[in-house]
Amino acid sequence: xxxxxxxxxxxxxxxxxxxxxxxxxxxxxxxxxxxxxxxxxxxxxxxxxxxxxxxxxxxxxxxxxxxxxxxxxxxxxxxxxxxxxxxxxxxxxxxxxxxxxxxxxxxxxxxxxx
Amino acid sequence: xxxxxxxxxxxxxxxxxxxxxxxxxxxxxxxxxxxxxxxxxxxxxxxxxxxxxxxxxxxxxxxxxxxxxxxxxxxxxxxxxxxxxxxxxxxxxxxxxxxxxxxxxxxxxxx
Lengths: 114, 111
Hints:
The complex is a heterodimer of chains A (114) and B (111).
Chain A: E1 4-7, E2 10-13, E3 19-25, E4 31-37, E5 43-50, E6 56-57, E7 68-72, E8 75-80, E9 89-96, E10 104-105, E11 109-113
Parallel strand pairs in A: 2-11
Antiparallel strand pairs in A: 1-3, 3-8, 4-5, 4-9, 5-6, 7-8, 9-10, 9-11
Chain B: E1 5-7, E2 10-14, E3 19-24, E4 31-37, E5 43-50, E6 55-58, E7 61-66, E8 71-76, E9 85-92, E10 100-101, E11 105-110
């Protein structure tokens, strides 16, 4: 199994500002995924991050709003830009690897935008 | 996009009773996983069932998969107050592909 950490675990931000969330894995993984979970809802995929290439975004999510970096096989960041109260959610990263069936999640970052 | 539908959306039972949650999905899959989430925290992987499997057990958990009906069920036997959480099913093709989550079932186990 993979051990995944996220920073920060929670934050309260003012509207119009940006927050960068870090995701660190204890082993090299091929794919990293970023999800958003709005209050009381299920998880929705934001984007898929493959090392060395641009992230692939799902419908409804754009790079200008959620820029993602994937500089190596153990680390990724997600930035929530120009935040509004609607961005208040839990943001989770998960990892997968070729040949592995199970995907594991980080503990999540709880974001509140005032 | 979410293709899974869990039912019930919320379930409240007494400690010691069994809890059954169902999940339906729309497209063909290779794998289905069940996760638990406590109080809006990170997801804990519970059990993986592959498309060529019909049933799996892990401790007090029993998962079934019916690919002809595109449905899965999670049974928690002899429930405990600590089982109180949200439970999600998620489908995907491989470890390299993203998960598609159902809406989840909120389970409350009353001591």
